[in-house]
Amino acid sequence: MKLRTIFTIGAAIAAVACGKAPQSESLTQWVDMRIGTGGHGHVFMGANVPFGAVQLGPTSIPQTWDWCSGYHVSDTTVIGFSHTHLSGTGIGDLFDVTVMPVIGEVTYARGTEDEPQSGLWSYFSHADEVARPGYYRTRLLRYGIDAELTATNRVGLHRYTFPTSDEAAVVIDLENGGCWDKATETRMEAEGDRVVTGYRYSTGWAKDQKIYFAAEFSKPFTSFELKGENNMYGRASFATTEGEELLLKVAISPVSVENAKENLAAELPDWDFEATAQAADAAWNDELGRVRIETADSSARRIFYTALYHTMIVPSTFCDVNGDYRGADGKTYNAEGAHIYTTFSLWDTYRAAQPLMTLIHPDRMQDIAATMVDIYKQQGKLPVWHLVGNETDCMVGNPGICALADAVLKGYVPNREEAYEALKASAMVPERGMDLRMQYGYIPCDLYNEAVAFDLEYAIADWSVAQVARELGKEEDYAYFLDRSKSYRHLFDPETHFLRGRDSKGGWRTPFDPFSAIHRGDDYCEGNAWQYTWLVPHDVEGLIECFGSKEAFTAKLDSLFTVSSELAGAASPDISGLIGQYAHGNEPSHHVLYFYTMIGQSWKTADKVREVLTTLYHDQPDGLSGNEDAGQMSAWYILSSLGMYQVEPAGGRYFFGSPLFDRAELKVRDGLLTIVAHNNSAENRYIQSVRFNGEEYDKPCIDFESLARGGVLEFEMGSEPKVWYEL
After folding, report:
1. Are 199 and 187 in contact (CB under 8 A)?
2. Is 73 contained in some domain?
3. Which of 75, 442, 543, 584 could make an SS bond with 577 (beta carbons 3.0 to 4.6 A apart)?
4. pLDDT band at residue 91 under the 50/70/90 scheme
5. Is pLDDT above 80 for 11?
6. 125-139 burial code (b ≥16 CB/10 A, e <16)
């Protein structure tokens, strides 16, 4: 059976053959939730609303890398339906408060696939699955139970259709979490004969996670018993008739059971499953409607709207309806009218996901930036990779600096002085190699692992601080951080023309192989010298100077795409989506194609952007070339298909590439931004000229403020390379 046939994505797809999507058209029909569930995409499968606290979906038996989201299309096991999941990440966690309907007595454990009775798990068939934004359905083959899921922001709603049985039950599982997550303390109790409350504390990627819940059934249970070792399972028993529907509402809170109850009462006071699913669909349509595209290519339309959907799963809500949330210091705070977020995969998302969000989600950006500043106040530095109130310190550099600086420079932070304090203080924390960098001017490879990767990301963050310092008139700070942002020059080897590890005595690491990558064991992070030599998006002119000439720089950049794609050493599977040694499957390469536009060879950007858009993204489960990474892989597609990309980490210069679609309309801060590509086709992929609001435009990029004000951006396309701008 072909995988294309196993998910319902809406018969209306066939009805829209070409042309502009009408304003009333349902855009959720174009979201194909299979995309990214295969390969190494790691995307979430299940029901949620945009940026919701709840991601309610199936969790499978396997706990290995490709199951970081709890689901992989190659697998057909399910241990239950969990209320929290990650999407696209390279590390697994969460899968909290898992619910499984069963028939008869079961073994209260995760179980193993080679022993069918070893746990309460069941097989399902992809042929029985229906998945669309805000709704999921499957059939549990072991029990003959149909399971349907939908959600509000903080509440998951289950509907289970049972066969006739005196031994029907719904099991709440607090033992099993995501991948490396382990429960440290749990509690569950019945309140009457329809409500169960409790909490789950756990440690994993997030070292100190706490989640509270309140669950309410649509009919009384006949009994409620704690089961399993350490009483981490709760069994609510029922007698059911053939085709009887049992509903369950589960609200979560990061603060308390009482807050979970309040969330439940506020968001889902009734039992109307269809209305809740329709409301979720409407919420997704509203968010997807921020960008409307015109194309005759239905596959590209599916890829686009699925990508847009993937950019709106996180950051996720991390406050209760009353404003309470758990701070990075473990204390309870109140947002006082603001909205608090979590799941900040910033090493990934500062590159494209946030620049996209600043364009189409101006209503959320102030709260996202404020959340980052609050995290700084609570833990003494801006977030690196923040998850449910925990700093994981995952990945290299100071990406929270880039994200906050970008928000400041784009006008989303009212208190710029407070934000600057957070930026500067975070850039000066003497940890994770920064103390060595301040001592030596770079991070010596004999004193710190992944030294080149850390140093380059710190340089990018320093440049971002410098831009805010200049904006605020802090000239001394501007000069200091701008100088520090050039630390990459210490790592440039003029003989090999690579950025490479340098030791504390000034010598180069030997032996040296630019194709070699040793995962978590060399000078780079999920990459090699070929990929990291270009990680200077903030100072392309300075990097060209290192090469000695633009010609030498260009020749080396050209060779990036033509050398062998073979990798030496114990390389990470993250190094994927290879064109030569350009690795689109991982974030450090994402800006590189736009260097050509920056040096006056925009036709090469057009060629390579179109190649990536049409060969490394497709509408199948393995349609992503690497981890989706919390929206970043998808955001690259969105921005690039619209014809632009923010190369520099902060400030908002979007460099032109090659628009894929004939027309797009974006709801931006001050109105509507219309992007039109005249005479556009696979052959006519080269920009011939640009007009903005009717005037000739002779620059290779456009600034954020111009885009955010709205207007009409027109590209005239042609089949011959042409440079239409002045550098």
Report:
1. yes
2. yes
3. 584
4. very high
5. no
6. ebeebebbbbbbbbb
Rounded CA gap, 493 and 298, in Å?
Answer: 47
Look up residue 4 and give its amino acid.
Answer: R
Return all residues near 30 (Cβ < 8 A) that are at least 6 apart: 9, 10, 13, 301, 302, 304, 305, 306
696 plus 605 within the same structural domain: yes
Task: Give per-residue pLDDT as tens, 161-192.
Answer: 999 999 999 999 999 999 999 999 999 999 99
Task: Give the separation between CA 417 and CA 410, rounded to whole angstroms.
Answer: 15
State the pLDDT confidence band at 21, using cuts at 50, 70 and 90: low
- CA–CA distance, 198 with 212 (Å, rounded to integer): 6
Distance, in Å, from the CA atom of 465 to the CA atom of 632, rounded to the nearest integer, reads: 22
What is d(CA 19, CA 452) in angstroms, rounded to the nearest whole number?
A: 48
Beta carbons within 10 angstroms of residue 282's beta carbon? 14
The pTM (predicted TM-score) of the whole model is: 0.96
**Where in the sequence is the domain holding 634, given as residue range(s)?**
1-30+590-727
Burial of 66 from C-beta contacts in 10 A (0-12 / 13-18 / 19+)? buried
The type of residue at 435 is D
Split into its structural domains, the chain has a count of 2
Give the max Cα distance, the chain.
80
Distance of CA 625 to the CA centre of its chain: 14
Q: Pick the last residue of a domain from 265, 288, 311.
A: 288
